[in-house]
Design a protein that fits this description.
The protein is mainly α. Helices cover 75% and strands 0% of the residues. The chain has two domains: 1-152, no CATH class; 187-297, no CATH class. The longest helix has 30 residues, at 88-117.
């Protein structure tokens, strides 16, 4: 490719990354982006007096942070895959750079605000470091989602979609909750949010298909993720909602084990969603196989 064509692709890829990173954060930004109240804040303030923060930094919002970061990366990956440029590797990493620029800017701004307002002491240091580690892990997860979804391989793209299905459901739930107001979601919307990850996983697996046989591994991983990730989200939200620094580590470990056992068990509620995803995947794969055989005739 001539240099001007390469430069055009690079610029477009960076723009894709920037435009994908911003909608990823949008469910939080539309709320006014005021930092949530902090247990370790240095002064007594009202919620509306909290400073502007580009991320909802709080131990109660960790799964929300995962959703905001992973959806931004996934959106950039999907855009690159639909584009299918000649210099795919270069374009993918440029798009990743655009997403990382948005997320790194938001991270630096938010943690600067948090650091300025927290009370001093060891607890504040542990809290700050824990949140920072969680946000960095979420950014890495978003980058992995981008690389998988942007890949040429259908199997890798379907794997990436399956891994971000639950965070995407949380992202849509944040949008719906912020637009309708806390506690105002209707029953049909709640039902849609419950089944959305299963529909997404089922559609991705149907598109992926079962041929060659090694794609069965993608089916196994995606269905397992649909079972395990919601349980992890529930466990994290519950445990961190108990004001983690004040609790005994052994008690926390026991609590996590009990919650995971309950949510992963037959009464945890994940079974129907996995069965729905499997039914959609099998039906879609069967239709695709039937269409291929008709084209061969």
């Amino acid at each position: 490719m001539p240099p001007h064509a390469i430069g055009k692709d690079v610029a477009l890829a960076l723009l894709i990354g920037l435009l994908a990173g911003l909608p990823g954060l949008a469910p939080w930004l539309v709320t006014g982006a005021q930092l949530p109240l902090q247990n370790l804040w240095g002064a007594e303030v009202l919620p509306q007096q909290m400073p502007l923060s580009l991320l909802p930094l709080s131990q109660y919002e960790l799964t929300t942070l995962v959703a905001l970061m992973t959806v931004g990366g996934a959106a950039a990956g999907l855009a690159v895959r639909l584009w299918s440029p000649a210099r795919r590797r270069l374009v993918v990493w440029c798009a990743a750079g655009g997403v990382l620029a948005v997320q790194a800017t938001a991270t630096v701004q938010a943690f600067s605000v948090l650091d300025a307002g927290l009370a001093g002491g060891a607890m504040s240091g542990v809290y700050f470091a824990g949140l920072l580690a969680g946000v960095i892990a979420a950014i890495v997860a978003g980058l992995v989602a981008l690389l998988l979804i942007a890949a040429k391989s259908r199997a890798l793209t379907a794997l990436g979609i399956g891994l971000i299905a639950v965070p995407f459901g949380s992202w849509v739930g944040e949008w719906a909750g912020n637009l309708a107001g806390a506690g105002n979601l209707s029953a049909p919307v709640l039902t849609l949010l419950r089944w959305l990850p299963a529909v997404l996983v089922g559609a991705a697996l149907a598109w992926c298909g079962l041929r060659p046989a090694r794609r069965a591994f993608v089916w196994l991983v995606n269905l397992a993720a649909l079972w395990v990730v919601p349980a992890l989200f529930i466990s994290v939200n519950y445990v961190l909602g108990t004001r983690l620094p004040e609790r005994d580590p052994q008690e926390l470990a026991l609590m996590i084990r009990q919650i995971l056992t309950a949510t992963l068990g037959p009464d945890g509620g994940a079974g129907p969603t996995v069965l729905l995803a499997l039914a959609i995947a099998l039906a879609g794969a069967a239709v695709g196989e039937f269409a291929r055989r008709r084209r061969r005739r």
